[in-house]
Protein: MYO5B protein
Amino acid sequence: CVPVLRLLEAQLQEQRREHEEEMEALRNQVDLMQEELEKQQQAFLQTLQLSPEVQVELGLQQEITRLTNENLDLKELLEKLEKNEKKLKKQLKIYMKKVQDFEASQTMVPVERRPHERNMQVAVQRKEKDFQGMLEYYKEDEPLLIRNLIT
Structure:
């Protein structure tokens, strides 16, 4: 009974320590957010004291900066997608070549062996099932999923 109590006490102390660490991290995060809010409030008050023309110019500069950052993000995403497209096209060419090689090897198989292979294929066929719904997968499994869909 005493070892169980010590174990529970140790677990409780560990949880308390983790909770205190988490609380400290959250306090630090709140402090940083308050500082940022104060900076934004000061910038806003300074902006209100400026003339309307300067306010418009500052607003335009901020919007240009935002759009520039958004364009850079989109350009990076486009480059990533183009790279992925090239990779997939390369894989597709490889698989198409394999299919052509397989088809070419099938035409070279003697006629007397072909009916036997067809019988084996019939034995391997599965019953059709009615599936409904969406396919869920992890983003990193996407190339494998696409490869399996192609083959």
